[in-house]
Amino acid sequence: MTKTRFTLLAASVSLAAAGTAHAHATFENDSAPVETTFKAVLQVPHGCDGKATTEVQVKLPEGFVFAKPQPKPGWELEIVKGDYQKTYDNHGTKVSSGPVEIRWKGGNLPDEFYDTFVVRGKLSGFGKETVLAFPTTQLCGTEGKVVWDQVATEGQNAHELKSPAPTITVTLSSGEHAHGGHGKHQMAGGPIEAGDLEISGGAVKAMLPGAKVGGGGLVVKNTGSSDDRLLAVESPAAGRVELHEMTMENEVMKMRKLEGGIAIPAGATVELTSGSLHLMFMEVRKPFAEGDTVPVTLTFEKAGKVDYVLPVGAAAGGHKHK
């Protein structure tokens, strides 16, 4: 790990709490959609048994990447860097390391006040709704210490924990509670990684009322040195999902089901789209409507099962599927 230090030479500023503060250290907003930049505002409500807080340490979980903390007047800022468990895309650049812990040091936050500590980062690489914990430690001089690092296990209520870690719930789409009422499904199709594979883009076509068959696709990039294969696709929105290929034979467009799946060669990018390789949703329970999303589970030979969400685009025009 490496450390980078910054010192802001300004007067110390503390924010007095206007009302009753939360008993635990929490985030001001605790939910956000995947593949978005999130401003994590940590609220520190009190000191250590009456002693003033002089240092705040926040460990960043896997998937909260490219982090940048906000400096605070009167506090020294320390950024601890390390390796990520996997590689993330930062505007076309593959990044495998970055900040893993942020420390605000040398300040003075009296017990009777509260303050906020801010770090901005991207929530990336999640294929399902996930709760991210940010273990946090308050130091109060050389004697006092408060640790917020407990994480609720399956079936356990987080409110029963004595010292729960601050958490953020990463959602697959941006509901109104998380993103101020912006488009409900705008994050569908965001890139996710599974082993050496990166799944991104794609969509399904809106369907006419009463229709039972729909089409769609996505993009799979293999960044590894060995071949993989898309074996099957499932979706709760359809009775079954088939892998199909459109080919031109004697000037006639024909479609066939690919029983053996679709090869994803090493170093290659395979695009599933109409008119070529694509997904066919059979026995659709409710016709896909533009603006909705369709969840799918992709099964790869080596990368295993991957959950993904496809947006529903404009209705298709042209050929019919039998």
Report on the architecture of this protein.
Pfam families: DUF1775, PCuAC. This is DUF1775 domain-containing protein. Keywords: Signal. Residues 24-170 form the YncI copper-binding domain. This protein has 322 residues and is an all-beta fold. Helix content is 1%, strand content 54%. The chain has 1 helix and 24 strands. Strands 14, 15, 16, 17, 18, 19, 20, 21, 22, 23 and 24 form an 11-stranded mixed sheet that branches. The radius of gyration is 24 Å and the shape is elongated. The N and C termini lie far apart (58 Å). Mean pLDDT is 83; it is low at 7-22, 174-187 and 317-322.
Give keywords:
elongated, 322 residues, mainly beta, Immunoglobulin-like, eleven-stranded mixed beta sheet, six-stranded antiparallel beta sheet
**Global shape:** elongated
Rounded mean pLDDT score:
83
The count of domains is: 2
Q: Which percent range describes the beta-strand content? A: over 45%
List how many beta strands DSSP finds: 24
Describe the largest sheet: 11 strands, mixed
For the termini, the CA-CA separation is 58 Å
Radius of gyration: 24 Å
Q: Report the structural category.
A: mainly beta
Low-pLDDT residue intervals, each spanning 5 or more residues: 7-22, 174-187, 317-322
- Known CATH architecture of the largest domain: Sandwich
The CATH superfamily title of the largest domain = Uncharacterised protein YcnI-like PF07987, DUF1775
CATH class call of the largest domain: Mainly Beta
Can you tell me the CATH topology of the largest domain?
A: Immunoglobulin-like
Order of helices and strands: EEEEEEEEEEEEEHEEEEEEEEEEE
The percent range for helix content is under 10%
The helix tally amounts to 1
